């Protein structure tokens, strides 16, 4: 018997990994007889794709049954796929699982082509379903399934896995090969000890079940050997068990320093040692702030001590760990003014990024059950987002969405963490007020045909410069504009160099045996030659810059620097103007000696500098 399990991802990304389906396929190994008779194939598609082509792919595998994982983003596409499968293969067994199947079984089954749903944790129900289908029996009625019987919803309660280590690992069994993906999802635990009313994570089995460190250790070996570059850790609160988290971080630091890990953490479990461990691992942290108003958070069963939060985020900043916050606008009792205050609080703590979402009233959550009492109007279909509330009108929600978009473009994607607060202070604006100005400028740019959806990093950098030029002039702060632009430019060049793979470096022997001035070179694509209004060394040594105080101390005398990646770090090399012009003249056509002559450099100093620049990967030989 053949079973096809389908994952419909939102878009191609390092997180587009069919982990849930791989867990089901791996669990078949717990029944050797069934494993010998059943073949499971995994199919990956993307939202908005060609449904007919998906069905062609699936049916070419001659399946007896097809299952699909249902989420907010793929519900409509999954139902369309199921309908097309039913039309072309009327006798096919079609089922679905995932969060949507658990949250809204009646809505999914009504008028759809699904024979039944798997609810909750899927491994044990899937094994039972496959066993029944293999024996010629219907899948409905298996443990953990739901179906319609003469219009009535029927279901059999699910049974979770008590000891997670008894479920075979998709990584260790080879069901999923990390080397075939740009990133990997790594599950360290299931469940959640918290009961946030808007969230679905604590549904089903209460509490947290964790995989053993022995299994985690073995899976980490597989991940390291695979060559994958990014790992997204699936654990709702990775640092809740402090000692366990620290052990895992030490394992990662020792064996996977080259891989970037993403963790979800809570601030109250961060201590100084943990902050330092996070800083020593290549990683980013996501912290669910949601709102900076403790009264709003209490209404959804969350707690926030503002002073404690500041202190623990301060530990991350001191250590140099990279972190970001989640914010939700539209929570019960929230308002546009309260959302602005949350933005100000969050941005003043220097997060690397902010992920901002409108409230979604997810079916099956506590908040969904009391939404009518709270006056929360929302969409009845995915993504279930709030449309108005007693304290957040529809027009205010639109304004909040514009603020969120401006924050995403100008702050997060614009990598503005190092300069945003300094610029806001120089303009005598709060962070949220500066974002308001950004949003208005973005609206204006779109009316003129700019600011489209497919913005590159360079597009955003140029937009930042144009926006700042306008607002500094409008607010009569032009004396500080050149310094502000220096900060924006430097951090753009730094981020570009950080993301660029460095070129292969020549050996000392190769350089010693070459007539450098008789060779044609060009500036490496990964190196950024930059001119600044102020001395770049003074800017870097100033740290967090107060623009007005800096201007009072330093004169805009101009400076040059080359910013480039090497051995996993980014270096900033200040340059005399003659050396900068030398680098500018290396166009790959003329010999380096000619460029040196045009820049006014003597042959000896040009040779010495060129030897350094080639060894560092700043310049590359024309081949």
- Rough shape? globular
Helix content: 40-55%
How many separate helices? 25
Structural class: alpha/beta
Mean pLDDT: 95
- Give a short account of the largest sheet: 7 strands, mixed
Question: What is the number of beta strands?
Answer: 22
Query: Radius of gyration over alpha carbons?
Result: 28 Å
Show unreliable segments. none
Q: For the record, give the distance between the C-alpha atoms at the N and C termini, rounded to a whole number.
A: 56 Å
Strand content: 15-25%
Q: Give the strand order of the largest sheet, numbering strands 1, 2, ... along the chain.
A: 2-1-3-4-5-6-7
Description:
The strands form 6 sheets. This protein has a 7-stranded mixed beta sheet, sandwiched between helices. A 6-stranded parallel beta sheet has the order 8-11-12-13-14-15. Strands 19-20-21 form a 3-stranded antiparallel beta sheet. The longest helix has 20 residues, at about 395-415. The chain is about 45% helix and about 20% strand. Strand 12 (about 260-265), helix 10 and strand 13 (about 285-290) form a beta-alpha-beta unit. The mean pLDDT is about 95. It has 25 helices and 22 strands.
Task: Note the main attributes of this structure.
single chain, 623 residues, alpha/beta, 7-stranded mixed β-sheet, 6-stranded parallel β-sheet, 43% helix, globular
């Amino acid at each position: 018997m053949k079973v096809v399990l389908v994952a419909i991802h939102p878009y191609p990304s390092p997180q587009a990994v069919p982990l849930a389906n791989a867990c089901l396929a791996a669990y078949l190994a717990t029944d050797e007889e069934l494993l010998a008779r059943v073949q499971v194939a995994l199919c990956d598609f993307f939202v908005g794709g060609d449904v007919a082509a998906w069905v062609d792919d699936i049916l070419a595998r001659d399946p007896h049954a097809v299952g699909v994982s249902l989420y907010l983003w793929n519900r409509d596409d999954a139902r369309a796929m199921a309908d097309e499968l039913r039309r072309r293969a009327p006798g096919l067994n079609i089922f679905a699982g995932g969060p949507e199947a658990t949250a809204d079984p009646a809505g999914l089954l009504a008028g759809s082509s699904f024979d039944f749903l798997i609810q909750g944790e899927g491994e044990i129900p899937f094994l039972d379903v496959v066993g029944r289908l293999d024996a010629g029996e219907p899948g409905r009625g298996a443990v953990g399934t739901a179906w319609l019987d003469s219009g009535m919803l029927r279901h059999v309660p699910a049974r979770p896995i008590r000891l997670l280590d008894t479920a075979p690992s998709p990584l260790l069994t080879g069901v999923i090969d990390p080397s075939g993906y740009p990133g990997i999802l790594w599950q360290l635990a299931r469940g959640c000890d918290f009961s946030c009313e808007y969230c679905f994570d604590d549904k089903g089995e209460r509490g947290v079940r964790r995989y053993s460190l022995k299994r985690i250790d073995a899976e980490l070996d597989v991940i390291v050997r695979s060559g994958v570059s990014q790992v997204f850790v699936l654990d709702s609160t990775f640092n809740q068990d402090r000692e366990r988290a620290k052990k895992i971080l030490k394992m990662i630091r020792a064996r996977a320093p080259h891989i970037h890990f993403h963790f979800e953490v809570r601030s109250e479990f961060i201590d100084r040692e943990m902050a330092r461990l996070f800083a020593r691992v290549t990683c980013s942290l996501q912290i669910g702030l949601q709102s900076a108003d403790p009264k709003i958070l209490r209404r959804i069963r969350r707690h926030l001590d503002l002073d404690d939060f500041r202190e623990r985020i301060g530990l991350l900043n001191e250590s140099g760990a990279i972190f970001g916050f989640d914010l939700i606008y539209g929570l019960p009792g929230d308002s546009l003014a309260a959302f602005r205050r949350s933005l100000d609080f969050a941005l003043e703590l220097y997060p690397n990024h902010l992920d901002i979402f409108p409230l979604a009233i997810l079916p099956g959550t506590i908040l969904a059950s009391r939404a009518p009492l709270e006056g929360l109007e929302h969409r009845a279909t995915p993504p279930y987002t709030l449309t108005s509330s007693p304290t957040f009108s529809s027009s205010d929600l639109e304004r909040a969405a514009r603020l969120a978009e401006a924050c995403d473009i100008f702050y997060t994607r614009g990598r503005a963490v190092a300069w945003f607060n300094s610029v806001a202070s120089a303009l005598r604006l709060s962070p949220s007020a500066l974002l308001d100005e950004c949003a208005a400028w973005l609206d204006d740019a779109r009316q003129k045909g700019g600011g489209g959806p497919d913005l590159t990093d360079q597009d955003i950098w140029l937009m930042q410069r144009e926006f700042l030029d306008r607002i500094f002039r409008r607010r009569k702060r032009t004396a500080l504009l050149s310094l502000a632009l220096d900060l924006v430019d430097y951090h753009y060049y730094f981020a570009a160099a950080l993301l660029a793979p460095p070129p292969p470096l020549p050996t000392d022997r190769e350089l010693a045996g070459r007539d450098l001035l008789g060779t044609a070179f060009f500036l490496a694509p990964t190196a950024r030659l930059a001119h600044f209004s102020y001395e770049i060394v003074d800017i870097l040594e100033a740290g967090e810059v107060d623009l007005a105080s800096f201007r009072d101390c330093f004169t805009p005398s101009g400076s040059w620097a080359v910013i480039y990646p090497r051995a996993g770090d980014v270096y900033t090399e200040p340059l005399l103007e003659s050396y900068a012009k030398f680098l500018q003249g290396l166009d790959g056509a003329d010999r380096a000696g000619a460029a040196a002559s045009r820049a006014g450099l003597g042959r000896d100093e040009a040779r010495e500098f060129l030897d350094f620049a080639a060894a560092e990967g700043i310049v590359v030989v024309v081949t």
